[in-house]
Structure formats: structure tokens, C-alpha cells
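Can anyone check this?
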Amino acid sequence: VGGRISSPFIYYKFGFYYLFVTRETCCWSPGITNSTVRLGWSKSPEGPYEDEVGIPMIEFNGGNDFIEERP
């Protein structure tokens, strides 16, 4: 899926489940990775989790960049 997913965390508030994950994509240049914290939400803890425009997080570009870190 173009990157590695780690550190999932689900938070419930105001009738929605919020899924936070860290996604690393490799090689903006050799040996350098880019990490972002992605956010999606769902009415069910089992999902599907989507971003603000309805793109499922399971897709490569799904989920909003919540926190972004670039080298």
C-alpha cells in the first residue's frame, strides 16, 4: 500500500470512533522516510474509517494528515 502502518489508536467521542495511525512512506530520497499521523472516523469501532470527504483509510491516500513530519 505504499507505506507501513503502525501505532493504531482508537478514541471515542460524540458518537464517533476516531482512528489515529502512523504511516511511513519510504524514500523521498535514498534512506529517508516520511512519517505522518493519519486520522479517520467511523460510527462503528470496526469501521470503515474514512476521511472528511469519504475516502476509506484503507486506500493509499485515505485519512487526513493530522500531524505531519518531514525530514
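Reply from J.R.: I decoded it. The first strand starts at residue 4 and ends at 13.
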